[in-house]
Here is the input.
Amino acid sequence: VQLVESGGGLVQPGGSLSLSCAASGFTFSTSAMTWARQAPGKGLEWVSSIYSDFSTWYADDMKGRFTISRDNAKNTVYLQMNSLKIEDTGVYLCALGGPGAMDYWGKGTQVTVSS
Here is the structure.
């Protein structure tokens, strides 16, 4: 299993970023996928998950601001992040599996929200 995140960077508060996670080594189309993040000095926080039926789930603070999606033809899961806040800063990681059942992780991509 390999998960490779990309798309992180520096953005001002209120800005947007789009993250991607390219997956390989398993049957992507039948797998749940999750985004989580780790802020500086804090533990891992679940952000969002998408299931094989394209149903989506979000942490409360991300509802209405973040959108998770998937492209099974490209074996890729995305996270569109809008209205970013300083507290959204952290390393964003992609994982195979749904909440509480994440088996494999990528190395993450850094998102920094700062003015």
In short: The first strand starts at residue 2 and ends at 6. The chain is about 0% helix and 50% strand.
